[in-house]
Amino acid sequence: MTSRPGGNADEHTPLINGESASSAQAGNPLRPQPKSAAFAFFFDAGHTPGNDSDSIAVRSAAYTWHTTKVVLLSGYVNFLLVVVPIGIVAGALKWNPTVVFTLNFFAIIPLAAVLSFATEVMALKLGQTLGGLLNATFGNAVELIVSIVALRDGQIEIVQSSMLGSILSNLLLVMGMCFLFGGLVHRGSNGAGREQSFSAAVAQTTCSLMTLSSASLVIPAALYAVMAQSGSPEKNTSILILSRGTAIILLLLYAMYLVFQLRTHSNLFDEEMQEEDQLEEASSIGPIAAAIVLVVVTVLVAVCAEYLVGSIDDIVESANISKAFIGLILIPIVGNAAEHVTAVVVALRDKMDLAMAVAIGSSIQIALGVTPFLVIVGWIIGQPMSLHFETFETVAFAVSVLVVTYTVQDGKSNYLEGAMLLGLYLIIAVAFYATPSDAFDGSIIRLLGTKS
């Protein structure tokens, strides 16, 4: 009979009453239960059998499956990945435009989540500076890919609306949900309510940049109105020159902002880092595997975006909704779904600095980085992409930035402020939904094309 070192045998000692060591361990609820080989093979993101095999073929196959498994288990929305091949087949076989749009709409949502996961893995392996730059570059990759595809097809109204919609969805929808749900969970007791807090200095800096981007849209709209009133025949050419010059200035300012955030004043942006479980997930695959995932997913997003954008004209005609509503409301949901979930989850955990970094940081990327970049891309490929948005869109953007600035300037938030931001977003969404498809003057875009 075996006994414990330094003690006598007892009822927990193996082989007592005919029990084996394994059965004794299985019967002890205080000891971790061993995972079956099948569970480890299919659901254990930390280890896959075969990774330590002496055979190169077995080891390569195991690591390939391990990377695939980690990617599939990286987010709850990844169950929608089954829609990706169906959406591609629907687009290739020219199914009904509504079906093609719907399938590829839902296909891009999990692809955006996987893209975000692979970017985080690469960022963790590259260090703070290069990782931050990578996040800034790929943080809005889905919106950029969809917009380039639409710009190449001459869908400038869609591009402008999707850029504005991405900014508004982050500023109003995401931040509003963070403030609302986070404020409700951490509201305190009746009569002694509390507010969540975040860095007021960071909020003020980022809101100042958003106000600048708002001015970059107001000035072209004001100039066009003045020149149109005077009957100037060169107004369209002047708008293009102004937009392209402004785009270059905004890109330079965005580069300075990255240096400010990542190098010289990184102490101000010392936001709460990723949760421990995210770090554990990210460390389970290497940077090379993450880079391969990044390339593959980017290609799939481009293909799905091609079919998504190609079906928009038919959707507008059949459903009688404006392109502005599709670009402003629907497309941003696709690209920002993963960020929406992340921001709300960390807000529920009372980590508002990280939630604000996700919401406002993404808006700055779009306003100062992606939108000016698309103006330059349009210049290169001969598409008259400008910063002259529709007057209604410009006003909605300016008002939203003003409301957000007043809301976050004190560095505190509560559920009432979140409800106000969500209310403004819903008002704007209803306004664009109620707008007829031919209400916005597309002749401006056509004139820009002929004058350039």
Compose a concise summary of this entry.
The protein has 452 residues and is mostly helical. The chain has a single domain, classed as NCX, central ion-binding region (A middle domain of Talin 1, Up-down Bundle).
Write up what this structure looks like.
- The protein has 452 residues and is mainly alpha-helical.
- It has a single domain, classed as NCX, central ion-binding region (A middle domain of Talin 1), CATH 1.20.1420.30.
- It has 18 helices and four strands.
- The strands form two sheets. A two-stranded antiparallel sheet has the order 1-2. The chain has a two-stranded antiparallel ribbon with strand order 3-4.
- A hairpin with a 2-residue loop joins strand 1 and strand 2 (192-193).
- Helix 5 packs across helix 14, helix 9 packs parallel to helix 15 and helix 16 packs antiparallel against helix 17.
- The longest helix is centred in the middle third of the chain and has 31 residues, at 200-230.
- Residues 1-34, 271-283 and 441-452 have low confidence and may be disordered.
